[in-house]
User: Fold these one by one.
Assistant:
Number 1:
Amino acid sequence: MHPVVKLLAQRIALGVLLLLAASVLIFVGTEILPGDVAQSVLGQAATEQALANMRAEMGLDEPAHLRYFDWLGGVLQGDLGVALSNGRDIADAIAVRLSNTLFLAGVAAAIAVPLSILLGLLAVRFRGRWPDNLISGTTLAAISVPEFLLGYIVMYFVGVQLGWFPTVAMINDRMSLLAKLNAVALPAMVLTMVVLAHMMRMTRAAILNVMQSPYIETAELKGLAGLMVIYRHAMPNAIAPIVNVVMINLAYLVVGVVVIEVVFVYPGMGQYLVDHVSKRDVPVVQACGLIFATVYIGLNMVADIVSILANPRLRHPK
Amino acid sequence: MSDTLLDIRDLRIEATVYPPGAAPFDTTIVDDVSLSLEKGRVMGLIGESGAGKSTIGLAAMAYGRGGIRITGGEIWLGGRDLRKLGPRRLRGVRGREVTYVAQSAAAAFNPARRIMDQVIEATLHHGLASRREAEARAVDLFAKLDLPEPETFGRRYPHQVSGGQLQRAMTALALCPRPELVVFDEPTTALDVTTQIDVLAAIKDAIRDTGVAALYITHDLAVIAQVSDEIVVLKDGRVVERGETHQIIEAPREDYTRALVSVRSIEHKEKPPAGEPVLRVDDITARYPGTRFDVLKGIDVELHAGQTLAVVGESGSGKSTLARVITGLLPPRAGGIDFAGRTLAPALRGRDKQDLRELQMIYQMADVAMNPRHTVGTIIGRPLQFYFGLRGRRKAERVQELLDAIELGEGFVDRYPAELSGGQKQRVCIARALAAEPRLIICDEVTSALDPLVADGILRLLLNLQKRENVAYLFITHDIATVRAIADSIAVMYQGEVVRYGPKSEVLSPPFDAYTDLLLASVPEMKLGWLEDVLARRRMESAGH
């Protein structure tokens, strides 16, 4: 077997294991919360008999590990359970919310990733000169402002003063893609500003690190121009660290949008989670937690896989 | 002079220095250098490190490394002054009319791209040929440079070929665009002697066959005598002497050139072994943890007090591993080590303070073997305090004694390693080893990173100290000239085994085993036509078999 295949298989197996561990943590975490679901559904006034009936009906009288495997088995079949607060199927509710969140995160990523890498390249090309300082300065400023404040600033200037985009990002299935893009413009803009600096600075650092290598001098002495040297010779060797930071930021986009979704009243996972946490709707919290964990572990796994594949020594052993 | 290709006039190059804790200042590293090279000729640039050789070589491409600036003079190439060209037109010259072969091809090739792509990149970039033509030319060059499987060689990645092959591929890279001039910057310095000779021959043939002119930069006069038509001797950024190769080698006019030509002329008569050996390595076999083959197989050598055992061989032969076993860093799988009449514990952990004190080490890279944030006084004082409990004034006095012993004198106590030259750093490392008053010092390639003249000084110092302190040296090196200069007995290592062992006079006299013969024959001699002689002899031998 090719050694890379083995490495990749190991890495993927590790990812699955991590995911299982995360599911255990999530289950145990919600398990040790005081009170139980039957109590919260029936309220403080419920009789002992009613509670016992309810627990039996929900299977809560079984031991914890059995309920865990029950839950896990359901999750693997796409059954996330039923929300306690409104009795609706969680999988159905989350599907809409998740696709909304992914849409917003996707729009932000589609702008932020290419932009940050391009800005990183430019900062390297003009390092120490004004374009570098300008890029570094503005992105740093953007990352230093808390994102909710950034959200309100953008909302006020771009949304209210200029009136270019709606300040409330409401979307639904009946809207056209263009209308949807228009609706998420402001939150996507804010998210881009939040993740841009980190990715851009890591790209710059990774490429600058490679630029010290003698093979960069070889390329310059071939008569290649600055950006070409960076693109052809520095980038391929900086891919692993860049992909790593890009994936961390993508994960942040999906997982960390809670604040921005609330600011812009966007019907995504974040708002859904916040709503149900306040209602103590444990199955929904578990489901959201599991989805966030999957996104995080999955994206980091992709980063590692790309790093392995980008290494010629692993791809082409002696 | 219509045949003049490169004409450098009154070249002046400056750089900005950033000393620690002081304001940056400008310094001149090349001053008032003029040289001219005709088409198809090979000019050798020789000098010690810091002489400005590489800087001048790169100036032929109007390129300054790091903060280096060309501040004066003219660089005429093919009828125009490169200093007056704009960046775009300059890029049109680089990689097309002048190309560059770097010292370390292993570092100069991009690890992420295939060799072929890199070899033909300049040719394609300047639009000199189609991809198909360029690849055909590269395959041609691979064959000419004796690379294995030239048809498919380019498909490999740099890490898939050896250092010597990569250095030849770098030459192919430089020759592919059919330049007028190639700058060779120490192309064989990083290679083993037995590899160096093949690469040298390949480069020489390639230069002759393509008719390209070359600037060949090296610190090894014996190497340059084999390839160049004329030689320019540099010191401290100025030209000391220039002339035809035979004149420089056979009748140097300047004192400095004479010193370079006669370097390695230390005479050391071997001492017969007397009394009990201070070190006895008894049938040592060792392998690294997690590997499946022995890097040392049945090593059996002895070393007497006040004598030097030279362990010689190519990289990968197991020389340094032997040092690791003796110092206890790598416990052997079998065999034992007797030291000063007692048996040493196999692992470092089991050895007492006296064992540690009496067995010291000096390394190849003096600058990484010292803490850059410690002063020389602290570095040398540390073993004095650790082993002998010296403090205060008595420690300071002893440090000064040791500094005198290594011929550095006063004013060095408060300096930091960064403020010392390469030779001075190695001297401080010697003083640190001596401070422990050892019976045995293991010297691991201690002169390999130094210029010949500086290395000479270090060897003389080591010999003097040996006479005075009666310390034994286990001297690890790949350099036969160093062995001749310092050894009493010699062990030749090849692939983890000692293939030849005995007193110096015996080991270095015929009849030789095949490997020792190859090793000795590969050491460049300061003689015109040496390369051809060796190659002719090899051809005759292989024809005879």
Number 2:
Amino acid sequence: MFRTRRNVVAALGLLTIGLTACAPSAPESGAPSGAAQEITLDVWGWRQEDVAAYEKIFKIYEDAHPGVKVKYVPYKSTEYDTILRTGLADANGPDVAQLRSYGLLQPLVAAGSLVPLDGEVKELSAFPETVLDGARGVSDKRVYGVPFAIQTLHVIYNKTLFDKHGIAPPATWQEMTAAFDKLAAADVIPLAATVTDTWMLPIQQEIFGATTYGGQDYLKRMLAGEAKFTDRPWVDSLTTWKGTSKYWGPQFAGTSYTDAQALFTSGKAAMFPGGIWELAAFAKADPHLQLGIFNVPAAPGAAVTKTLVPGFVDGSFGASAKTPDKAAALDLIRWMASAEFGQAFSKELRQISAVPDVAPADPLLAQALTAYTADPSPYVTYAYFSGGTPTAWDLASESLSKFVLGRSTAQEAAKHVQQGVDQWFKPTQ
Amino acid sequence: MFCLPALALYGLFVVVPLVTAFYYGLFRWEGIRQAEFVGLGNYGEVLTRYPLSEEIPTALWHNVLFFVGTMAIQNTIGLGLAVLLYRNPRGKRFFQTVFSLPYLISPLIVGYIWSLLLSPAFGPVNFILRTVGLESWARPWLGEPDTALPVLILVNAWQWVGGPMLIFLAALGGIPRELEEAAAMDGASAFRTFWSVRFPLLMPAVGVITVLTFIGCFNIFDLVYALGGSDGGPGGAMDVLGLLYYRTAFEGGTNAIGESSALAMMIFACVFGVSVVLERFLRRREVTL
């Protein structure tokens, strides 16, 4: 008996030692920092492939700010949100973090994990309100990050195939479908459309359906509670988009995102409806691929007669509320709202910077930005109806999948989105 | 006393997370900040909020179909292979290894490989079907709601068929030869011998495999995620409780921790409850020598 008790005590002691050993150590950066001490700012992000580019970008800042080191710490994109939520809870986490936009930002705002930037970063006043929407807390309307990139949605096309078949980027809907027919007749898949990866479906719906429901004007009415997903224009936009499915290639129901990318880069398909971010992946898959972009002209019976360019804010950089170097973190964030950062970002990462008046050097990005600035259209389900649960984006991904597979009507698909959103969305008057 | 290390580990890695999940599920959360106590409010929210309220019964039904399909295909084939190897010991070790090899691969990799094999654009499966003249059989297997779940059952069976085979093989080895010889002397056919002598004695193995299959089928996540993504494939045809939990926890909103913890507790109660009942039921049917 005595022996057993002693063993129990010994085992508990060992367990305690083991657990203590596993406990996190005291934060290094919690030590008082003297003026001469070097500050290292950890910037967390989800772009593992961009580490080298960010090192170059932050080198510019480091050179101008002796004593400050900026380190980009990337995490796997799919795990980033969870890691960030935990990381922001203590001082060992990031000083500055790459933040998701719109609805995905809200849990961090609700948890009080971020520093509100209103009044802290005066450069933000030059950013358009629609761009700041991507970094705004829905509950308090405050801005929590400096937007870094704008993503635009287009039909990306293979120039060589277009030239071979005598096709030019279309100016009207009829020209576009005639081009699709011509390619299909020549055994080229006109559109490499993603179907099984459902997150791509709302993107494609915006690309082909934006003019049918009317883009920005319709969004304003939706936000004011005067229009719904179930109203005719939005329902019709689904039908407009699905009308192109005869050009999606044989057995499109099984086409995944990577399949669609491979169909396009291998030259089996002439066009890929998707985001401007695809350009980098396509250039990597085949550096000789000659690429062009166009936006879908107004569909027959559309609410607007001009071509619309859907786009959204990809993310922003914000400061952790727990950072021990708040002043330095905010200074870095102010720099991220400058033209210097915007230009470096655009050049190194081949993306459209969200900083106003920064023109991308890449001609296709410049074309995308010019087109978006002239006729912008919102990515409605992702950007503006994602502040509650369930998000319109999740609902649309589910219901559009059933819709394109012929398992539901456009009206039913729209009802699924509206019914989900109705549970939390309150119109702003 | 000898159980103490195991008990400590079990407590740390099983009981503590379980109790924590139950505790978390009783509160509303704002991101990672625990807000007010809501009792069973999260449970109510999960069960009544559209579309979760409709997705839960659908996902549960898919888990049931997945379990029934796996029992019918994977475990029947496993039993068949075990009987074949038991009767023909030549090459037994070789085939045991071959059938168990997919065990060593992560379900995520298995799912990814099969999604490539079954791709309608580039996959060899449809290419072979077309080459041998079965053009109409070449389908977007993982893209059609009607074929997605059966494909999931088959791919899962492909990976795990070695498990029931090994258990059945061991159980067959434990049946005394005299019993079969006596049956043969009484004039029983091979079929009759199997069903009247061997199979009743295999019931303990059937019980273990059924419970393990049930737990595996109701906890499935990785393979179905690799084959159909977090939305559960075409039109949600492969949506299962594991994916639903994943979406609630990692693609959920501000109160993701509260709601996903409540959902996890409900899944646990369902799997634990049914497993206990199933185990008791099967134990009663066991025949002892």
